[in-house]
Amino acid sequence: AKKLRSDLGIASMDFCNLSDDGRNSDLPQLSLKSIQEATHNFSKEDQFGQGGFGPVYK
């Protein structure tokens, strides 16, 4: 059975850390180029698994 977030003790998103444009200012900003270099251009060999938001890379 599905449980509500409140039943699980999960708080709602904290909007205090958002900048004026809605982005979380506490998170680092990575360029596409740096991500491509780190994943060898999204190589299947570097793919660790699959997450809820897409592939997960080493």
Description:
This protein is of the alpha+beta class and 58 residues long. It contains two helices and two strands. It has helices spanning 5-8, 32-38, and strands at residues 47-51, 54-57. A two-stranded antiparallel ribbon has the order 1-2. It is flat, with a radius of gyration of 16 Å. The chain starts with a helix and ends with a strand. The mean pLDDT is 76.
Q: Helices and strands in order, then pairings?
A:
Elements (H helix, E strand, L loop, with lengths): L4 H4 L23 H7 L8 E5 L2 E4 L1
Antiparallel strand pairs: 1-2
β-strand percent reads 15-25%
Q: What's the helix count?
A: 2
In whole angstroms, how far apart are the ends? 33 Å
Q: Which structural class should the secondary elements be placed in? A: alpha+beta
Number of strands: 2
Which of globular, elongated, flat, extended, rod-shaped describes the shape? flat
| Strands ordered across the widest β-sheet | 1-2
Task: Please summarize what this structure is.
The protein contains 2 helices and 2 strands; from the N terminus they run ααββ.
Based on the model shown, name its key terms.
2 strands; alpha+beta; two-stranded antiparallel ribbon; 58 residues
